[in-house]
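Why should sequence recovery work at all? Because a backbone constrains its sequence more than one might expect. Tight turns favour small or flexible residues, buried strands favour hydrophobic ones, and helices have their own preferences. The token representation captures these environments compactly. In the example below, the structure is given first.
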């Protein structure tokens, strides 16, 4: 079976950690990326995601100085023209989720929305990098995130500094046979197309 355009897009995404500082990300691009996030599914359609788009150079400088500091200092190297602060509002579905033995529907919902945004950005030719290594307390304070809302992740966004590679780097992913089974844990799935990616 021919690989779909969607799988090509997924395979083309990789974490970009160097950006073209002189090339801004337009409002239209940001709107398209956020629209993809807005359309994500969520438990009970709660839509707990919120995004703070950090683009002002002064705010980015404070983010680097205050939130990408100490044990998170390495994150300063991901100097992007835009960061999306992916935030999650805790609410009723968390309670339902916990009752159903799930740790947090908010986390699941926001992660889906975040990756929608990432894939929309990749389709536009932009680079992204999920960032988990940052000081959440300081980020909350800096961005004025209210109580009851978590900063779940930062997503770096911008035009990649590196010229597009002729061959994409190897993804280093586990084969399908190591991550998926048929009908019961440990029962081989059989069809494995993962070597092609
Ligand atoms: C939730 C999450 C947090 C991450 N945090 C960081 C981070 O703090 N710094 C970083 O350089 N990369 C971070 N990454 C990127 C991963 O290192 C990267 O996705 C992984 O190595 C696979 O490489 P690829 O994205 O190029 O396919 C994070 C990715 C995810 C999904």
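From this structural description, the recovered sequence reads:
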């Amino acid at each position: 079976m021919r690989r779909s355009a969607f799988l090509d897009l997924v395979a083309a995404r990789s974490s970009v950690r160097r950006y073209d500082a002189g090339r801004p990300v337009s409002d239209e691009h940001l709107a398209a990326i956020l629209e993809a996030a807005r359309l994500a599914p969520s438990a009970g359609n709660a839509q707990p995601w919120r995004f703070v788009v950090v683009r002002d150079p002064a705010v980015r400088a404070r983010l680097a100085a205050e939130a990408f500091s100490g044990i998170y200092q390495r994150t300063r190297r991901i100097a992007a023209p835009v960061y999306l602060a992916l935030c999650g509002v805790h609410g009723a579905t968390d309670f339902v989720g916990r009752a159903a033995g799930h740790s947090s529907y908010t986390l699941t919902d926001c992660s889906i929305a975040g990756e929608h945004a990432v894939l929309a950005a990749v389709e536009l030719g932009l680079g992204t990098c999920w960032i988990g290594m940052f000081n959440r307390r300081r980020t909350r304070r800096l961005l004025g995130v209210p109580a009851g809302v978590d900063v779940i992740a930062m997503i770096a966004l911008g035009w990649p500094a590196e010229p597009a590679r002729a061959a994409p780097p190897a993804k280093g992913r586990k084969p399908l046979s190591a991550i998926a089974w048929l009908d019961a844990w440990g029962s081989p799935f059989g069809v494995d197309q993962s070597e092609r990616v």
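A few observations help interpret the result. Residues 5-164 form a domain with the NADH Oxidase fold (CATH 3.40.109.10).
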